[in-house]
Amino acid sequence: MNLLKALDEWIIDLRRQFHRDPELSFNEYRTQERIISVLEELGIKCKRIADTGVIADLYGKGPGPCIAVRSDTDALAAVEKQTEFNKDYISENPGVMHACGHDGHMAIVLGLARLLQEQRNSFNGSVRLIFQPAEEVPPGGAARIIGEGGLEGVDAVIGLHIFGNVDVGVINLRPGPFMASSNRFTVKIFGKGGHHSIPEYCVDPIAIAAEFISSLKSGISEKIGPSDYVLGFGTVNSGEQFNRTPDEVEIVGSFRTFSDEDTGIIETSMSSLLDSLMEAYSYNSHAGTPSYELDVQYGYPVLYNDPAFTEKATGLLQSIFLKVNPEANAIFGAEDFACYLQEVPGMYAIVGTRNVEKGILEGNHSSSFDIDEDILMIGVRLLHTLALDFLKDPGAYLK
Q1: Triad 8, 12, 13: Cα angle to 5°
Q2: Residues 229, 281, 300, 340: which is the catalytic one?
Q3: How far is residue 46's CA from residue 393's CA, in Å, rounded to a whole number?
Q4: Given this model, what pLDDT does residue 1 score?
Q5: Burial (CB count within 10 angstroms: exposed 0-12, middle 13-18, buried 19+), residue 292
Q6: What angle, 0 to 180 degrees and rounded to 10, lies between the N-to-C axes of helices 102-118 and 29-41?
Q7: Is position 300 annotated as part of the catalytic site?
Q8: Catalytic, out of 89, 248, 373, 397
Q9: What is the 3-state secondary structure (H, E, C) of 287-352?
Q10: Whole-prediction pTM value?
Q11: Residues of the chain with pLDDT under 50
């Protein structure tokens, strides 16, 4: 018990070190150095990857399969508010904050590294530790890690995320789609500008944009259930003069789905609606107007937990942890961990940190976000349990 208490205190201290010194995506240079320093102190060789990332292989006593464990490392552009909890570890980098739990993720994976390094003579195979930069900003760091060989030789991958809106200690997971794809769209509508006093000489792109915005969701909902997607408009920009019809409008927004099919339906619905609006607003006297450009930029893909892997992992976790929810609702948050799961089987889990009794209530990305540090050891135990069980019997996970 003293060893576990020492490990717990070590992990908490690491998490606070990371929290004091947050860095933005692809600028995690001091974070990278701290991770390397800790791994080298543990006797684990590591190397840099994707500019500011780190990977390390931790070997057991003999040959065997390899499972990867990933932590993200970047922080957010946010001014951290001082609270009753963070006075000893509030961000010392103005305007940057670990507001999404990545400081906890790094501490958890380093805690796993320490535990496995101490136990390396008790298992076969290897565990690859991936400390990935830039999860917060698409296209993200996962693609860089994969492109630079970070998954070569890996048979499976696991990861977790700390969530502020899930009760403390609850482990949420589900087979299949678990987190959504994220996609950005830009629509440019071109009309014919002119004075408001002579509307017959104009083709008003603002009026067209208004119909597009007001009609799009109802058209999509005829084809996709309202619980299967979200769509929002972020910016609408047009014009400079109060009494002049502008020549064009730009609309920028985003949408999220749980399947590639639904993503295609939304994109097609946009095109069809725009086509019909172009026809409705076209006049013989203004040939060639209106017109439009639609650009959809695909972000992170759907995060899809391998069903066989998740089924086996769920049974094991339920035998050890009291608060496992194996049928958690899929969420519209997006994660580039999805990219790893497109390459090798594996699973992603959510660990709750909301603790009403302690007053830890803020959600992720809040300027007052914090975690119940008791969950750090839960995270270590979760990853430790799955990694060792996979190395012992990979076939049970890779049906």
Answers
A1: 115
A2: 300
A3: 26
A4: 53
A5: buried
A6: 20
A7: yes
A8: 373
A9: CCCCEEEEEEEECCCCEEECHHHHHHHHHHHHCCCCCEECCCCCECCCCCHHHHHCCCCEEEEEEE
A10: 0.94
A11: none
